[in-house]
UniProtKB/TrEMBL annotation:
The keyword Hydrolase applies. This is Ligase-associated DNA damage response exonuclease. Residues 321-330 have a biased composition (Acidic residues). SUPFAM superfamilies: Metallo-hydrolase/oxidoreductase. Keywords: Exonuclease, Hydrolase, Ligase, Nuclease. GO terms for molecular function: exonuclease activity; ligase activity; RNA endonuclease activity. It comes from Poritiphilus flavus. Residues 321-342 are annotated as: Disordered. Its EC number is 3.1.-.-. It comes from the Bacteria.
């Protein structure tokens, strides 16, 4: 029996022929990295390869590492295996990784979304035989509204809070979600202030994207300055001494998990906006169909339910365990970033 082109090991997704790993979670000699979130780009590898727009993000997080960049669709060979990176649409610099050997093609998506958010290079469907897909939101209950509608709701919420002379505090993951929120906030309503962790990551991304002006909150910032304005902060700031200094304020979270009212109640959030940097149920299904793949491997998310549905539709679908966390990942990494960056 022919060995699979990619296999799942205790270190990560491994291409044995090329002796290279895709988004490994343990230190390896050579790693191809899909994007900058902490569960996909980890410290300790000897050599990193990624899209060039992802390099400043990864270096900001991991420090002085040996890393090289590639362009979209550029083919590079490792031990006669062809690799190329293609837009995943998840966050700035996020890639799908295409692997080809002797006519067989696999695609590893990392994390992805198909809606153009105006920041990340829009998702591109890649033809393949085997498609490795996340299914963070692989349930029919997850159905996203167009982001224009969501941002209309967010800006209306902000304007209403301003009319009541309250500060609006909007939680979004430090890398990706915070910049997407910033991109589409209506600056005619007021000023946008940021938590230090959000500001530091936003400064890294500014050369890669057109973003509005922000003001970092410091110990010298007076709460009177914040009244009526917007504050962008990571989820881990909720309930901290940092936020309690902003009274009176109203909180909101932007996440796919806000689909469930219970998630908002558990987090003691005043308002929830359903906005995700991952595909919803229909987006996953349409993406898989567009690849023409016969075999689908489901990772991180509702893997059992989603793969079972795919088998009912005639796919050769299975699941594999990984250490990727989907939209939950940046909660932990955001906390670590704040401890380092204030």
């Amino acid at each position: 029996m022919q060995k699979p082109l990619l296999k799942f090991t205790d270190k990560g997704i491994y291409c044995e022929i090329a002796d290279v790993y895709l988004d490994p979670w343990r230190p390896v000699k050579k790693a191809i990295i899909s994007h900058g979130h902490s569960d996909h780009s980890r410290w300790g590898h000897q050599k990193y390869i990624t899209h060039h727009r992802n390099i400043p993000i990864v270096k900001h997080r991991l420090g002085d590492i040996d890393i090289s960049g590639r362009e979209w669709g550029e083919t590079f060979r490792i031990n006669n295996v062809k690799f190329s990176l293609h837009p995943a649409g998840h966050i700035v610099g996020s890639s799908q990784i295409r692997v080809e050997h002797q006519g067989e093609v696999w695609v590893f998506t990392g994390d992805y979304k198909t809606e153009n958010d105006g920041l990340a290079t829009p998702y591109e469907s890649v033809q393949c035989h085997t498609f490795i897909t996340e299914c963070t939101f692989g349930l029919p209950a997850f159905k996203w509204s167009p982001q224009t509608e969501v941002f209309d709701e967010i800006n209306q919420w902000w304007a209403a809070n301003k009319a009541e002379k309250k500060t609006s505090v909007l939680f979004g993951y430090t890398l990706g979600k915070a910049q997407r929120l910033l991109k589409h906030l209506d600056t005619n309503i007021g000023k946008i202030y940021t938590h230090g962790a959000v500001e530091n990551m936003t400064q890294v991304i500014r050369p890669l994207a057109d973003l509005p002006e922000t003001i970092q909150i410091t110990p010298e910032t007076k709460k009177e300055e914040l009244l009526g304005n917007m504050v962008l902060a990571p989820p881990s700031a909720h309930g901290s001494s940092w936020i309690r200094k902003m009274v009176p304020f109203v909180t909101a979270s932007a996440s796919g998990w806000m689909t469930f009212r219970g998630a908002r109640r558990r987090r003691a959030i005043d308002k929830g906006f359903v906005l995700s940097d991952h595909c919803d149920w229909q987006g996953l299904l349409e993406s898989i169909e567009a690849t023409g793949a016969e075999r689908v491997i489901c990772t991180h998310g509702y893997t059992d339910i989603f793969s079972r549905y795919l088998r009912e539709r005639g796919y050769d679908a299975s699941t594999e365990d990984t250490q990727y966390e989907g939209e939950l990942a940046e909660i932990d990494s955001g906390t670590q970033t704040e401890e380092k960056e204030g």
